[in-house]
């Protein structure tokens, strides 16, 4: 599976915003703290703002805040905000009936497992070394291990 830079940067930006909810953070500060190209981050934050995951205010007291509590923002929400569909095959839904039945079943299984993982982890889970279940189980899986 390929994770887009946009999704990676969006998750990192949201974690940065969740780490300090007392004040707005400016784009330059988020970019520097998370080593994200500033111009790319502006585009990412625009997508996150459009979908309500962040809110913003202009001016000297302005910046970006989380649009919702970090515990309610799942990784699936983030992927949907910046990339759209979680899984497509050549731009189409994995359930396309024109594929061989075994192949279609494989893509559906991968889609279901991906959705399970991404809906099971929130931005708040990524702030702690001891995430709550089921996020702890998902985050501790060794590479290649079955769930």
Automatic annotation (TrEMBL):
Keyword check for DNA-binding: yes
GO molecular function list: DNA binding; DNA-binding transcription factor activity
InterPro entries: TR_Rrf2-type_CS, Tscrpt_reg_Rrf2, WH-like_DNA-bd_sf, WH_DNA-bd_sf
Keyword DNA-binding: yes
Keywords associated with the record: DNA-binding
Domain of life: Bacteria
Cellular component terms (Gene Ontology): cytosol
A Pfam family assignment: Rrf2
Protein name in the entry: Rrf2 family transcriptional regulator
């Amino acid at each position: 599976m390929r994770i887009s830079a946009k999704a990676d940067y969006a998750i990192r930006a949201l974690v940065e915003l969740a780490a300090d909810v007392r004040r707005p953070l400016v784009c330059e500060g988020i970019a520097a703290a998370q080593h994200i190209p500033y111009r790319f981050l502006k585009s990412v934050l625009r997508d996150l703002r459009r979908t309500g995951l962040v809110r913003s205010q202009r001016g000297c007291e302005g910046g970006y805040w989380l649009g919702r509590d970090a515990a309610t923002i799942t990784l699936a929400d983030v992927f949907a905000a910046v990339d759209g569909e979680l899984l497509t095959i050549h731009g189409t839904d994995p359930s396309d009936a024109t594929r061989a039945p075994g192949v279609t079943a494989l893509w559906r299984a991968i889609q279901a497992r991906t959705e399970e993982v991404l809906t099971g982890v929130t931005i708040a889970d990524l702030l702690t070394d001891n995430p709550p279940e089921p996020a702890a189980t998902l985050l501790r899986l060794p590479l290649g291990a079955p769930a």
